[in-house]
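Q: Hand in one record:
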Amino acid sequence: MTALARWHVGAWTTRGTRDGEVAVPGRRRTSDELNFDVVGLARILGRRLSGRDELQVRLWQNELRPTHTRMCGVHTLADPDNARLLHDTAQEALAWLGERAPAGYEFVLTDAIELRPLLDLSAEVVAVDAVVQLTETPLPAARLATAHVRRSSSGDWYAGDAVCNWSGPHATSEEAVAAVLAAREKLVEQLRAAGREDLAATADRWPAVPIESA
């Protein structure tokens, strides 16, 4: 799935209003709108639906998003049975997403779809994000050590996150990856200096540096 060649920790959808919470029109989705976002996210990331199911999604869209400029947090489905169908469809989409989470991460539905690093140090793959989170101490190398590598429209290569570049420009992807790997080595040293040998020992199970060429 090329859509998951590069990912970010945190929310992947707009946040919604939980049961018992005060609605915040314009800022937080209704539960129906959030469920629709879950279905939509899976479709964006490559989930294919039957013609009948695609039609149903369009019907939900017409009711929940009548215009592109509509305010979120105010629309719900009129038919309770239809709302339950949307909820069930969102759960199926969530399960589909869960099967495709990057190694060392998981998709979780809270008040949004969130991608979180798995915090199990005994796992086969331990995300660098998990190590940084468990450290609970700011380490200088942490930011670049968790970076991904991507190519810009100009052809240069950078290392960073979903929105920022922290290293580059580099002439090749190999140079950008080398910058991230150097930061990971520094992170191991800093973890040991902080007395977290348990976290440093996971370095041989960190995933390869993600590279996005497009």
In short: Helices lie at 31-44, 51-64, 80-98, 128-135, 142-145, 173-193, 197-200.
